[in-house]
Design goal:
Length: 345
């Protein structure tokens, strides 16, 4: 039989792996008697783990969430995963960088020397993708308030500060009424946090940036969740940011509203390196077919024009028209003399 300490760790690991454990199955897995299982459960309770017993034909035990945080048990893979997650927390935009660093220090202090050495050798430098504007940070208390409203299915009231057009005064924005929505999902996209919600005043689905939300208290009444268009939050959010209002129209895949095909005088291997969501087909050593999508036809033509190669448009006609439009614009830009700015008085 295992030593008591080893047996308790094994029992705790099993209780964390699933919600309910029949007592007989625990005894079988640990190769001990049901009486020993009961004694070990009592020892875990003395250590602060809220293990409760449930009755029934397969009566057994369940590890409940407690009010205090008892000692945690991690295997090697969980410890490495936790260290990685805490080190890359700086790229989440959730405003938890300092707390994540403290958590990593705390976890490291209570781990065995063997795991500490593994964590110390895993030094991750989180580098965000360069952007024209830095991703805004969201207060963690705002994220928790939004998450609580989503979980409780309560109407959320908040002040929203969208991007204001030039000339809009702060006083005008302050007089805007609070938004009232039924929050369904809290998601991240491109390093930013968003709430997917049904807008009660506009009677339509909306996505709101969390960094522009100031929640109001108290929250509103509970609501019955609606079915999201397309039935999948990933497809819905992807479709919204790709210019489509209804992912169900695109088969629930969140496809780009404008898609076209061209032939490029470039090797397929070269084009594939610079095409994130397009389809590249090799037609020869220095020739390939590219199927690509965008939010508009001129945007699609401009993206394809970024390849330094001759282009043959397969279709549709809207893509050819977009190339013609850009050709006129570029020709005009190439032949028009620059306009001098007026002198500063």
């Amino acid at each position: 039989m295992q030593k008591t300490s080893s047996r308790l760790l094994a029992l705790l690991s099993l209780l964390q792996a699933r919600r309910d454990w029949p007592g007989a199955l625990l005894a079988e897995r640990l190769d001990i008697s049901p009486r020993t299982v009961r004694r070990d459960v009592d020892r875990l309770r003395e250590l602060g783990y809220p293990v409760v017993a449930f009755k029934g034909p397969d009566g057994g035990y369940r590890l409940e969430a407690g009010t205090a945080l008892p000692p945690l048990l991690f295997d090697d893979e969980q410890a490495v995963a936790l260290a990685v997650a805490l080190q890359v927390a700086t790229t989440t935009g959730a405003g938890i960088e300092e707390a994540a660093a403290r958590a990593l220090t705390t976890v490291r202090q209570v781990m065995p020397a063997r795991l500490r050495r593994r964590i110390d050798t895993l030094q991750v430098t989180a580098v965000e993708r360069p952007a024209n504007r830095p991703n805004p940070q969201v207060d963690s208390s705002v994220l928790m308030a939004l998450s609580d409203a989503v979980h409780a299915r309560e109407v959320l009231r908040f002040d929203y500060a969208p991007a204001s057009p030039p000339g809009t005064a702060d006083a005008d924005r302050a007089e805007l009424p609070p938004r009232r929505v039924q929050p369904h999902h809290l998601v991240t996209w491109g390093g930013r946090w968003y709430v997917v919600a049904w807008d009660l005043d506009r009677e339509d689905w909306r996505t709101f940036r969390a960094d522009r939300i100031t929640p109001r208290t108290p929250t509103g009444p509970r609501f019955t969740p609606r079915e999201l268009p397309g039935g999948d939050v990933t497809a819905f959010v992807t479709a919204r940011f790709q210019g489509s209002d209804n992912p169900a129209v695109a088969g629930g895949t969140g496809a780009w509203p404008c898609r076209g095909e061209v032939i490029l005088d470039l090797p397929a291997a070269v084009v594939s390196r610079y095409t994130r969501d397009g389809i590249v087909e090799e037609l020869g050593p220095n020739r390939c077919r590219l199927a690509l999508g965008s939010w508009s036809w001129p945007g699609l033509a401009a993206a394809i024009g970024g390849f330094d190669a001759d282009i043959e448009v397969i279709g549709p006609p809207e893509l050819k028209d977009a190339f013609a439009l850009l050709a006129r614009r570029y020709a005009h830009a190439a032949t028009t003399a620059p306009t001098r700015p007026p002198p500063i008085p």
